[in-house]
Hints:
single chain; mainly alpha; Serine Threonine Protein Phosphatase 5, Tetratricopeptide repeat; 2 domains; 0% strand
Amino acid sequence: MSVEGQRLLKQAATFAKMGDFPWALNLLERSFDHFIGATPREYASAAEVKTQMALIHVKKGNNVTASECYTKSGDFYEKAKQKRLAMASLCKAAYLCIEERALWDALFLFERVSEYYVKVDAFKCSELSFDACLCIIAMGQMSEIAEVFEIYCGRITYEEKLGVIKKLLETHETRKPLVKQEWFSMVFNHLS
Length: 192
């Protein structure tokens, strides 16, 4: 266990609480280098560092960088065989992507997370599937929605899928808007 890495991580938390984000990020970078440079690599600790970095970037309003940090955190948690923490990080990254209108990135993250939840938590999987569909709706690609339902809901017929799509649109009381901003608003309202 990297003692120096842990020490730097604790110092970073102190500076983050005081609002000194540049110094906290500097300490976190140094801490990360210790965890990755350790033999064997300390992936769980490296993931924790990336999560702390993401939290700071969210506070600073850097959602793109925060999303990248959460994604790396998820990757490191997976390497540490901590799947639930990995999926939680990837979900946070996906929702930040939506806020930044990087809908394709969000969709890929939702698909990655759903592959895990389809085996362990059907309710969470369907929730993520719904959010993935909202991303596709927001991109204005109606013809692809049925394909997404095929991935997540292989047990229902094509007609049932189209019925679900119709209900989804009715739920949000929307016709197909002409402006992408309106699509984004619909997704954002669902997430708020």
